[in-house]
């Protein structure tokens, strides 16, 4: 185990638990004026609990192990003291150019978010502090050239950092800070060997930060402390922070097809006000739900591991800017392991439909969409491949994850359309709302065992154990003092909507889902790869790039967008009228054949019809000689 020495080369006394620190303002923390100016620009009113406790200790040079809930400001808690230390170090006449800080994160999405956070806090000292993100997919020679200039802060996954260390592209001789963000997730991603290689290269005495929302297992904690820390200060703040932002939790017990009915009703009648993240079990469910909602004119965008990382990052950014109201996200790489003793590991799922899914005519191999054009080499390389049954299977990003780490702002509701498989995953999902002291709601659909597989087209294997998982989730939340209440939904009042449910679900066939999945991937690859340089040169164009367009892979019926008055439950009439407005009695013409006939008729191409109706004497025209 490494020894942490002070300035006099004497071992420091061990500090197991931090003493209480009163709340202070950022100005009282002794930060550089340029950093304070950036904090004001970010509209941070006062430090959060983890920031007020961690920053003073970090400025003293202490190693820190912090467990704090999602949305509590853990990133700023280690970024601000690192920036302060680097600025102070560069003011010294003996300063030598080197990499000062290495920030390790489990995923590329999170690396991009941390990089932008560092850049925002270093906005007024950008000439003195340079940060590099090593997680983007680019040529190794390009990254090698950027590393040769010794950036002050490097953000990377343990895998990328270990590769550059082993290739001698990255030197950590002058490193003063090492950070592992989402520490327990880093371990669950099987980065053990990479962490060992990095630990050997980190100089003795480098200050370490281990940050996580659920770092409880003693084995995990002791391993990381042994690799990077010596006598760390342990901050366990999740219990103190539970009152700062509250999540009201509800469950609805329903059949598998009724999940779609409830989702349609909730969004059509505006029962949820504000932005919503809908979690589903796999990628096919993601597109099934999107196509279903399209039947009723409800816009949404998808977020899954198939999409290019640039598109995923842009979706989150636009969602945070209130461009989109609904995100349908997959959680196929969720972290398993409940708090009752078993360790953490990731769930890896296959995204192909199961063999026992009810077949449809559209699900045959002949109906599969065509492959992309041959000249689009980048897109072809990444397009979904097909197995022997003709099912599309795309290469997924193993570093993808949306249930934790990613900073979703101002989320009003987390809708667990498909219940997660562990209470730990549930905790991280609902952590996407009620962030930064705000309130939020979590609504979960639970399928009773007697209703499982009663509607095969909408069935998912994980729903078989919903009641058992809910029992574990309830026990875990009760330990934290949280209550999960049943949501009072009178299903009888929704009987009028059921015939619409059947029409919409029949339109969303397996073939339509496969086509939508391929079409979305083609579109996002073009946006991500072909236009990347254009967007770098023309950033204003990026604002007009949307991800919630209609896929149109399923048959869309115009009347489904309008809710007739007789279908509305009591009290819903006024809401629907306010939101929808005037709806005419005449049907909108969307039939392309009928439209084409009308155009041909107007041009005089339908000669037989014109001959029957036209009067030759009235249509006769004569011109005299000039």
Automatic annotation (TrEMBL):
Catalytic EC class: hydrolase
InterPro entries, per the entry: DEAD/DEAH_box_helicase_dom (IPR011545), DEAD_box_RNA_helicase (IPR050079), Helicase_ATP-bd (IPR014001), Helicase_C-like (IPR001650), P-loop_NTPase (IPR027417), RNA_helicase_DEAD_Q_motif (IPR014014)
Region Disordered: start-end pairs: 335-396, 601-626
Motif Q motif: where in chain: 24-52
Cell compartments where the protein resides: Nucleus, Nucleolus
EC number: 3.6.4.13
Residue span(s) of domain Helicase C-terminal: 246-492
Residues in DEAD-box RNA helicase Q domain copies: 24-52
GO molecular function, one term: RNA helicase activity
Physiological role: ATP-binding RNA helicase involved in the biogenesis of 60S ribosomal subunits and is required for the normal formation of 25S and 5.8S rRNAs.
Family: Belongs to the DEAD box helicase family. DDX56/DBP9 subfamily.
The protein, known as: ATP-dependent RNA helicase DBP9
């Amino acid at each position: 185990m490494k020894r942490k020495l002070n300035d006099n080369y004497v071992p420091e006394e061990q500090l197991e638990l931090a003493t209480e620190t009163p709340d202070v303002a950022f100005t009282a923390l002794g930060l550089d004026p340029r950093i304070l100016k950036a904090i004001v620009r970010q509209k941070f009113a006062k430090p959060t609990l983890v920031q007020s406790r961690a920053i003073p200790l970090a400025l003293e040079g202490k190693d820190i192990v912090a467990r704090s809930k999602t949305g509590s400001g853990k990133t700023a808690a280690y970024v601000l003291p690192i920036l302060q230390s680097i600025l102070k170090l560069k003011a010294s006449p003996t300063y030598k150019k080197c990499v000062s800080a290495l920030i390790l994160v489990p995923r590329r999405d999170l690396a991009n978010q941390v990089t932008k956070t560092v850049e925002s806090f270093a906005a007024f000292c950008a000439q003195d502090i340079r940060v590099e993100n090593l997680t983007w997919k680019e040529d190794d020679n390009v990254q090698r050239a950027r590393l040769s200039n010794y950036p002050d802060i490097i953000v990377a996954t343990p895998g990328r950092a270990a590769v550059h260390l082993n290739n001698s592209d990255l030197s950590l001789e002058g490193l003063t800070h090492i950070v592992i963000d989402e520490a327990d997730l880093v371990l669950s991603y099987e980065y053990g060997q990479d962490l060992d290689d990095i630990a050997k290269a980190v100089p003795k005495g480098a200050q370490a930060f281990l940050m996580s929302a659920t770092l409880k297992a003693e084995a995990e904690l002791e391993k990381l402390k042994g690799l990077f820390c010596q006598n760390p200060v342990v901050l366990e703040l999740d219990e103190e922070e539970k009152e700062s932002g509250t999540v009201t939790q509800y469950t609805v017990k329903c059949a598998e097809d009724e999940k779609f009915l409830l989702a349609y009703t909730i969004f059509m009648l505006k029962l949820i006000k504000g932005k919503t993240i809908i979690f589903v079990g796999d990628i096919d469910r993601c597109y099934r739900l999107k196509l279903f909602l399209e039947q009723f004119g409800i816009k949404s965008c998808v977020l899954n591991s198939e999409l290019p990382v640039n598109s995923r990052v842009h979706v989150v950014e636009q969602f945070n800017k209130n461009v989109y109201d609904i995100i349908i996200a997959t959680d196929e790489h969720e972290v398993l392991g409940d708090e009752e003793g078993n360790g953490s590991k990731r769930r890896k799922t296959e995204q192909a439909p199961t063999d026992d899914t009810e077949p449809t005519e559209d699900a045959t191999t002949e109906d599969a969409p065509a492959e992309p054009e041959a000249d689009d080499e980048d897109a072809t390389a990444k397009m979904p491949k097909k197995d022997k049954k003709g099912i599309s299977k795309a290469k997924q990003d193993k570093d993808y994850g949306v249930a934790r780490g990613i900073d979703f702002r101002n989320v009003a509701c987390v809708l667990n359309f498909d219940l997660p498989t562990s209470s730990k995953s549930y905790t991280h999902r609902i952590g996407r709302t009620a962030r930064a002291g705000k309130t939020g709601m979590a609504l979960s659909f639970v399928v009773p065992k007697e209703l499982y597989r009663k509607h095969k087209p909408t069935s998912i294997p994980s729903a078989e154990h919903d009641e058992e998982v809910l029992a574990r989730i309830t026990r875990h939340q009760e330990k934290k003092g949280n209550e999960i209440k049943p949501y009072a939904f009178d299903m009888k009042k929704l009987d009028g909507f059921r015939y619409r449910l059947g029409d919409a679900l029949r339109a969303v066939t397996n073939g339509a889902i496969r086509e939508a999945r391929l079409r979305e991937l083609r579109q996002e690859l073009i946006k991500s790869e072909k236009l990347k340089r254009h967007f770098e040169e023309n950033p204003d164009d990026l604002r007009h790039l949307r991800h919630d367009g209609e896929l149109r892979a399923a048959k869309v019926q115009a009347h489904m967008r309008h809710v007739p008055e007789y279908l509305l439950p009591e009290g819903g009439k006024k809401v629907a009228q306010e939101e929808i407005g005037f709806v005419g009695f005449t049907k909108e013409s969307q039939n392309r054949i009928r439209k084409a006939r009308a155009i041909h008729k107007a041009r005089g191409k339908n000669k037989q019809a014109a001959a029957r109706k036209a009067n030759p004497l009235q249509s006769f025209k004569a011109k005299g000689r000039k």
